[in-house]
Amino acid sequence: QVVELISSAIGDLVQGIYYENSKSSEENCLTDDIGISTWKEQVFLSHSALLAKSCQAAMELAKHNAEIQDMAFQYGKHMSLSHKLHLDLQPFVKESSSDAMAFSLNSAPAVLHQEFLGREAWIKQIRENCRNPPPCASLFRQLREEIKAGRGVTSAIDLCRCHGNRALAALERFPPSEARAALANIVDAVTRF
């Protein structure tokens, strides 16, 4: 059972990385089909599946029942999603002297901003501005400011905290211990802004 879980997690990881790499080779990393649900699916495959299934496998090795295994899986899944959201948010929330902090157009704040703005209008604006020199350098600064001013960042923070709360809810099913407190502290660290 453990070998199956880890094997499927590695399969998910490979599929997620392949998907990310195939999309990043497209024109300026733009994809016509990514929304927040697609973002979540992709992040689950490339980031969350390994942690979630590893947590589940640990409970299997400890001979816990299916309910406890599922709670461990849920903790790993939601903890990993909140961690990825935290990473995606850094270029938008981190106070940095570097104005050129890189971000992906497929990061959660950008995807959410595009959904609020209107996906087609956003893609059209990016493509029109990228045709003019310099090749997208000043555009990314402008886009970052627009995303920061819109609802994409606040929605991504809310989503990060939502997944963090789901991870904490899964932890509540385990008896109090130092290990549980440490896992809760990890969630707290990635949901604090």
Automatic annotation (TrEMBL):
Coiled-coil blocks: none
GO molecular function: prenyltransferase activity
Domain of life: Eukaryota
GO biological process terms on file: isoprenoid biosynthetic process; ubiquinone biosynthetic process
Transmembrane residue ranges: none
Annotated GO CC locations: mitochondrion; transferase complex
Protein name, as recorded: Decaprenyl-diphosphate synthase subunit 2
Biological classification of the source: Eukaryota, Metazoa, Chordata, Craniata, Vertebrata
